[in-house]
């Protein structure tokens, strides 16, 4: 289980390809003569408007950075769960909300997505291309590091962290549909419930995760800035303390009794050796719990610019790159040392995980791997005649 989401068109997992429209917009070119002046004026106005960059919101950058840190920490705790009930409780608590938080932000920044040419291009270069590149890279890494030369490359069966990119691609393509239905969130939740009791869906493109996490993306599409302001009030920050404390206590109780695979949302109930009806119950119960914890998480996110704010633009880098270390630590038996399973070992491991993911989000790392995360690929797309006409004008 991952992850977790981008602010640059391709550099982060939660920014929509529709956030900053390309110069030229979607206005139709008009022939010279009657209406030609109007078209020219409209094109000039659109170009000037597009030239104004949208100001970044420090709140979302901070949220993305802190969420990706929790993703890395959660992965570092996974091998410790069997020998430590406390580690298992922390793991369950974090997994209850870190991916829903990422997905909600992804949906929020996808609100303006439509089938416009420039936005589809950014969807391809910012989501589909990194998915293909890292699916191949992860497979080759597994063949080498896990001494498994026969492990196949399959673009329909995401391995480890790449499922989120496949899901994000599908969710964004469906965005226009969610904008026209009357009750999008209840409909998405009904789809998630049906998926949780349908073991025949299979593993292609991790469709179970795509469908079971879908309600969080649709909620993000439905949110407005004022909704985030509600959870950022002082009263909400105070209430979040006992709520999180109660969640940790419950997780400590549930750790030896509950299958953590429920939090991954990658299987139907029957595949977890549970009765079919429990899929519906668990989906609804976990949806409610996740929403509450996401609200608490957002309540604690600073809204001011901090030392880590700029790192929010590099969360996709940290997300995808740390997977090699997370999996490598298992392949190379780093957790075999008894010291790693002591309280001090767990603390040091947590600090190391947070430090590594922070470094992987920094600008130097972004510059090195931009070719894979943010390929321009202008050669792959037809030229936009409207944009060319505007540049000539």
Describe the overall structure:
The N and C termini lie far apart (51 Å). 61% of the residues lie in helices and 0% in strands. It has 393 residues and is mainly α. The protein has one domain (55-392). The protein is globular, with a radius of gyration of 22 Å. Helix 2 runs parallel beside helix 14 (315-331), helix 3 (85-95) packs across helix 12 (234-254) and helix 5 packs antiparallel against helix 6 (163-173). The chain contains 17 helices and no strands. It has helices at 36-51, 58-77, 85-95, 98-108, 117-145, 163-173, 175-180, 184-196, 207-212, 214-222, 225-231, 234-254, 276-299, 315-331, 343-360, 363-373, 385-392. Mean pLDDT is 86; it is low at 1-52.
Topology:
Elements: H1 36-51, H2 58-77, H3 85-95, H4 98-108, H5 117-145, H6 163-173, H7 175-180, H8 184-196, H9 207-212, H10 214-222, H11 225-231, H12 234-254, H13 276-299, H14 315-331, H15 343-360, H16 363-373, H17 385-392
Helix pairs in contact: 2-3, 2-4, 2-14, 2-15, 3-12, 4-10, 5-6, 5-14, 8-10, 8-13, 12-13, 14-15
